[in-house]
Amino acid sequence: MLLEKHMKLLRLYGGLLIQRAHKHTAPRLSEKKLSRCFVDHRRVKVVAGSGGNGASSFHSEPRKEWGGPDGGNGGAGADIIIRVNRQVKSLSSVSTVYRGKDGEAGSSQNCFGRNASPTYIAVPVGTLVKEEGRTLADLSQHGQLYTVAYGGAGGKGNRFFLSNENRAPLTATPGEKGQERVVQLELRTMAHAALVGFPNAGKSSLLRVISNARPAVAAYPFTTLKPHVGIVTYRDHQQLAVADIPGLIPGAHLNRGLGVSFLRHIERCRLLLFVLDMSSAEPWEQFQQLCFELDQYKPQLSHRPRAIVANKMDLPEARGNLEALRSRVHQTVIPVSALTGHNTAQLILHLREMYDSYPQNS
Ligand SMILES: Nc1nc2c(ncn2[C@@H]2O[C@H](COP(=O)(O)OP(=O)(O)OP(=O)(O)O)[C@@H](O)[C@H]2O)c(=O)[nH]1
Ligand SMILES: [Mg+2]
C-alpha cells in the first residue's frame, strides 16, 4: 500500500521535473512566431458603427391627453480612427478586422441615444494608409489621427418631424450604416538596415548570426523568396531591425529574377549593407552591379549610408580578394564569416555606429 503511494508520488513529481527540464531547454521560437515580431504591412477591414434608430413615441401623462411627439434621435455609430503611437514599433498588434460599436437608439421622453465612442487603431510613426494602391494618409507625427471609417449618423426621432403642418408625426428614421472599407497599412521604413546582395552571398546566414530571425539557408540561389526581418538587440536595449532581402540579379530593375518588388523593400530601409561573396572571382564587380541595379530603380538609392560586408572570409580564395576589394572601393569593408561567426560582432557594432551617425531625418 505504502509502496504504491510512493510510486504514485514519484510518477507525479517525476513528471513535473521532466516538464520543468523541458521548460529550461525550451525550443527557440518558431519561425511563424518570430515573423510576428516585426510586421511591416497589414490588410485591415474597418467597419464603423451604425447609427442608433430614432424613436417614435408620444408623451403620455395623466390629464394630458395630447402630449405630443417625444421620440428622441439615435446616437452616432463609432468612427474607426488610426492613431500614431511612438511606442508601437510594428504592425504586429494590428488586427485584421475592426468593428465600431453602434450608436444607442433614441427613446421616449425626448431621450437621445448615446454616441458610440470611437475605436482606435494604434500604429507606429511612419505608417502609410493605402486603399487599392492609392495613399490616403502618411502618418509621421506622434499622436496624429486619421479617421479611416466614419460611423453612421443616428436616426431622427418623431419629435424632430414636429411642425405646424404636422402636429403628430409618426415618422422616425433608422440610423445610417457605418462606413466599411478595406485598407492596407504599410510601414514607410521596413527596417533600419537592408542586407543587399546576389543570391547565395550569405545574407540569410548573416541575419541568422546577428539577429533572432531564422530564415532558411541553403547552397542554391533564391533560397529566400520573401524578406525576413530580424531584430539586433544592443546592451542599452536599443533594437535595430535588419531585413534580409531576397537575392537580386543583373536586370532586377527590369523585373528580372525576383524583380522590382524587392527593390521597393530596399527603398524602405535607411542603411544598406552590401553582402559580397568573397570567394567569387571578382567581388568588387558584384558591388558595382548591385549599385547599378539600385540606382536604375531609383536614382541615388545606392548612395544611402552603406557599408560592404565581405562574407565567406573562411574560404581560402577570399583572403586574396579582400585587399583587392579594399583598394577598389572607398566604403568601409567589414570582413566576416557567417559560417564561423568570425568578426560578426564588429559588423553589429558598425551597424550601430551607422545608425547613430545618420539620424532619421537626414
Ligand atoms: N564557407 C562559407 N559559406 C557560407 C558563408 N555564409 C553563407 N555560406 C553558405 O552559402 C550558401 C548560401 O547562403 P544563404 O545564407 O542561403 O545565402 P543568401 O544570400 O541568403 O541566398 P539567397 O537567399 O538565395 O539570396 C549556404 O550554403 C551557406 O552555408 C560563409 O561565411 N562561409
Ligand atoms: Mg537567403
Q: Which CATH top level class of the largest domain fits?
A: Alpha Beta
Q: What is the name of the CATH topology of the largest domain?
A: Rossmann fold
Low-confidence stretches: 12-36
The radius of gyration is 31 Å
Distance between the termini: 79 Å
Major sheet characteristics: 6 strands, mixed
Work out the strand percent.
15-25%
Count of helix runs:
7
- Proportion in helices: 10-25%
CATH homologous superfamily designation of the largest domain: P-loop containing nucleotide triphosphate hydrolases
Structural features, described:
- The chain is built from seven helices and 14 strands.
- It is an alpha/beta fold and 362 residues long.
- It has a six-stranded mixed beta sheet with strand order 10-11-9-12-13-14, sandwiched between helices. Strands 3-1-8-5-6 form a five-stranded mixed beta sheet, with no helix packed on it.
- 40% of the residues are buried.
- Bound molecules: guanosine-5'-triphosphate and magnesium ion.
- The site of guanosine-5'-triphosphate has 24 residues, from helix 3.
- The site of guanosine-5'-triphosphate (GTP) has 24 residues, from helix 3.
- This is Mitochondrial ribosome-associated GTPase 2.
Characteristic key phrases:
Spo0b-associated Gtp-binding Protein, Chain: A; six-stranded mixed sheet; five-stranded mixed sheet; 7 helices; 24% helix; binds magnesium ion
Q: Secondary-structure blueprint of this entry?
A:
Elements: H1 2-24, H2 31-35, E1 41-47, E2 80-84, E3 97-99, E4 119-123, E5 127-131, E6 134-139, E7 145-149, E8 180-187, E9 191-196, H3 203-210, E10 228-233, E11 239-244, H4 260-267, E12 269-277, H5 283-297, E13 306-311, H6 316-328, E14 333-335, H7 344-357
Parallel strand pairs: 1-3, 2-4, 9-11, 9-12, 12-13, 13-14
Antiparallel strand pairs: 1-8, 2-7, 5-6, 5-8, 10-11
The structure holds guanosine-5'-triphosphate and magnesium ion.
Magnesium ion binds at residues 203-204, 215, 223-224, 244.
Protein name: Mitochondrial ribosome-associated GTPase 2
GO molecular function: GTP binding; GTPase activity; magnesium ion binding
Domain Obg: 36-190
